[in-house]
């Protein structure tokens, strides 16, 4: 039998792909989705289109990793050895108070079809639609950031599980809403830029009752017990239902993805208020299996050095589920900006003669 050169090349390529599938035990295309092979912060719908970061060893995105070996991640993934890694312990007494426009949640109160996946490291929820997507802006973020996916971190018991610590306190779990800077078009492209990613971190704290929104998610864990299993969420949830009641009190700092390749591209927003979940719900997380067929838990990275990073604390009391109109936001931004001098404004106002009737020295306090 005579083969043309092009046929030989095809045979070689197909054989190579089959070999890779055999080695990895999963389809090659799945491998390139980086669901399991790189880190769960990556949007599973986004394929890697170009070469990895310069500081990532070639091909390292596809290397396996696990939490037991987190001290050695930096031997394979250079970025994991950086100075601006996450998670960190947040010391509230050292946080600098800062005012900023309120954090705005766009399309967080719409429901979409969602998929849930067990990737062996966590449970990921992503939207299975290409329509308009949720986004965030304000709250000290430089741009608008589109929702990519959300996932969870939890412990073997409820005394541990969160990635970040507040004043050395570890919570029972942590929920991450991962967003990418909309100007980069996709999560994969955004991870190559310092202002590429924004993650909202929400602590999970044990309480006496089930968390309603979470119950729709954990109720389907029986369908994704094994690694690589995906299912469609049957009861649509609103993303805002997984947010804490107070979304305007939070800490901010600059850090990294908390899983390999640990790129230092994340603007972290860590909410002060936790959401409450039940022990029963956390037990359902612990029934999932990892790649080795063991129970999946303690999927949090150890605390990293902050290396003197500035942590800011933002507080407010307004809650938005819909974005403001741009003219509304502009007015709000102006009044909260340093250009606005409230003292001068009230001294100047044309009704100042009324003040004289009450107390001429008193400056109205509208805060
Ligand atoms: Zn995470």
Structural class determined from secondary elements: alpha+beta
> What distance separates the N and C termini?
86 Å
Bound molecules: zinc ion
Query: Any idea of the CATH class of the largest domain?
Result: Alpha Beta
What portion of residues belong to β-strands?
15-25%
Report the CATH architecture of the largest domain: Roll
Counted beta strands: 16
Would you give the CATH topology of the largest domain? Carbonic Anhydrase II
The overall number of domains is 2
Number of helices: 9
What form results from the Cα inertia axes?
globular
Poorly predicted runs: 17-61, 319-323, 345-367
Percentage of residues assigned to helices: 10-25%
Determine the mean pLDDT. 80
What's the Cα radius of gyration? Answer: 24 Å
Biggest β-sheet: count, sense, barrel? 13 strands, mixed
N-to-C SSE series? HHHEEEEEEEEEEHEHEEEEHEHHH
> What's the CATH H-level superfamily name of the largest domain?
Alpha carbonic anhydrase
InterPro entries: CA_dom, CA_dom_sf, Carbonic_anhydrase_a-class, Carbonic_anhydrase_a-class_CS
Cofactor: Zn(2+)
Signal peptide: 1-25
EC number: 4.2.1.1
């Amino acid at each position: 039998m005579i083969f043309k050169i092009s046929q030989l090349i095809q045979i070689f390529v197909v054989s190579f792909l089959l070999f890779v599938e055999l080695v990895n035990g999963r389809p090659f295309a799945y491998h390139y989705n980086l669901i399991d092979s790189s880190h769960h912060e990556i949007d599973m719908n986004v394929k890697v289109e170009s070469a990895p970061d310069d500081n990532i060893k070639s091909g390292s995105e596809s290397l396996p990793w696990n939490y037991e070996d987190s001290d050695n991640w930096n031997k394979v993934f250079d970025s994991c050895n950086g100075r601006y890694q996450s998670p960190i312990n947040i010391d509230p007494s050292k946080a600098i108070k800062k005012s900023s426009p309120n954090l705005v949640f766009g399309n967080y109160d719409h429901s979409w079809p969602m998929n849930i996946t067990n990737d062996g490291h966590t449970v990921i929820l992503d939207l299975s639609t290409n329509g308009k997507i949720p986004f965030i802006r304000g709250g000290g973020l430089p741009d608008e950031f589109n929702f990519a996916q959300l996932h969870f971190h939890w412990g073997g018991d409820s005394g541990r599980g969160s990635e970040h610590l507040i004043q050395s306190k570890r919570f029972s779990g942590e929920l991450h809403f991962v967003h990418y800077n909309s100007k980069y078009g996709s999560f994969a492209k955004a991870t190559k830029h310092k202002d590429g990613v924004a993650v909202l971190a929400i602590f999970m704290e044990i309480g006496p009752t089930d968390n309603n929104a979470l119950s729709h998610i954990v109720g389907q864990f029986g369908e994704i017990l094994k690694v690589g299993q995906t299912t469609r969420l049957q009861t649509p949830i609103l993303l805002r239902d997984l947010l804490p009641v107070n979304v305007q009190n939070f800490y901010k700092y600059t850090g990294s993805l908390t899983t390999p390749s640990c790129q230092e591209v994340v603007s972290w927003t860590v909410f002060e208020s936790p959401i409450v979940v039940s022990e029963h719900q956390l037990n359902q997380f612990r029934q999932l299996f990892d790649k080795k067929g063991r129970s999946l838990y303690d999927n949090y990275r150890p605390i990293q050095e902050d290396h003197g990073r500035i942590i800011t604390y933002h507080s407010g009391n307004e809650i938005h589920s819909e974005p403001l109109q741009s003219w509304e936001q502009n007015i709000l931004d102006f009044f909260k900006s340093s250009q606005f001098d409230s003292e001068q404004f009230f001294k100047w106002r044309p009704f100042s003669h009324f003040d004289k009737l009450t107390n001429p020295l008193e400056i109205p306090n509208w805060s």
